[in-house]
Amino acid sequence: MLRLPTDGPATGPLLDDVLAREGAAAIVAAIARALPPLAARLAAGRLHGDPEAIVGTNDSGDRQKALDVAAHDHMIAALRAAGVRQVLSEEALDIILLNDGGAFDVAIDPIDGSGSIGIGAPLGMLFSILPADPQGFQRTGRAVVAAGYASFGHSVDFGWSTGAGVHVATWDAEAHAFRVSRQNLRLKPQASTIAYNASNERHWAPGLQAWARDLRAGRDGPRGRDFNMRWLAAAVGELHRILLKGGAFLYPADARPGYGDGRLRLIYECVPIAFLIEQAGGRATDGHGPILDRVPRGPHDFTPLFFGASEEIDALQAALQG
Fold it and tell me: Where do the annotations place Mg(2+) 1 binding (predicted)?
């Protein structure tokens, strides 16, 4: 590894020494331990085969790539070994029973942003953990007791919360372990960087289009200040950046066929994001109320999603409702 003049020994406690060995924290630790082989396969690109090869379709009709399915199978094996009762995954139509007497259920998106497989753009994983209950996943996000994400970029980062703040660990290749690199992340209430797909703006509700026009006008418009724009096309990449640097993200419903309820999945994409964002002092909404208060209509329910700095999310919600 290249050493910088200011470098010293790796610092930060090992993740395995920080997380409890029981309860939901033990499931969080098991997910983290499963990440290095997945990260290594991502880093290998096409050296051993094509990770983008189409091998099927998921419940949305989205094409499944070889890496999507392999990541799903890999994580199912890890969660089974960790004693999880059942799993809801983006890559499976039905809920998967693993251990009848398990104490926890897990909702997971094994590879977020898979449209960017093979081009070096950020990819990730999202998950949430719920106590086992007869309702299964048909509960609001307020039932979640832990959530997290993996960000596969130039570093492999693992963010998590067990209900006591948001923390991030980074993979230390020399130690072959994750080290805690950031603790108790907090979002500033005001955003200076906004992430959305501007190509869809013409399909948005009128109030939201007006919000975007005011935003782009910068210091010469009614907002009176300039904003930066970002769009990574991977919710995990946006989540990781916003947790570290601040800002806001939106993927609203729009007038296109199939987008009237947004396009992100409520249970295994938006709920983990909302849990983490609220733990960091931000807000996450569907445009009408908190994501964590929504009752799913089905296991693969769609929802609009707005998350990040509290003041900007309030402004977005007011624009939608005005």
Answer: 90, 109, 111
Crossing angle, helix 310-321 and helix 206-217, to 10 degrees? 140
Residue 111 labeled ligand binder: yes
Question: Where does the chain show beta strands of DSSP type E?
Answer: 54-57, 63-65, 86-89, 96-97, 104-112, 123-131, 146-152, 156-161, 167-172, 177-182, 193-195, 228-230, 248-251, 264-265, 283-285, 302-303, 305-308
197 is in an annotated binding site: yes
Annotation-wise, does 269 bind a ligand?
A: yes
As a whole number of Å, the end-to-end CA separation of the chain is 54
Tell me if 184 is assigned to a ligand binding site.
no
210-221: pLDDT as tens digits:
999 999 999 999
pLDDT in the model for residue 60 = 60
15-184 and 193-321, same CATH topology: no
Cβ(267)–Cβ(126) under 8 Å? no
Residues facing 156 on adjacent strands: 152
pLDDT reading at 300 higher than 70: yes
- Residue 79 binned pLDDT confidence (cut-offs 50, 70, 90): very high
Q: Which CATH class is domain 15-184?
A: alpha beta
In the chain, domain spans: 15-184, 193-321
| Share of residues in the chain with pLDDT > 70 (%) | 99
Fold of the domain spanning 193-321: D-Maltodextrin-Binding Protein; domain 2 (3.40.190)
Does the pLDDT of residue 255 top 90, yes or no? yes
Q: Is the pLDDT of residue 207 over 80?
A: yes
pTM of the predicted protein model: 0.96
Banded pLDDT at 115 (limits 50, 70, 90): confident
Taking alpha carbons only, the member of 154, 112, 145, 118 closest to residue 238 is 112
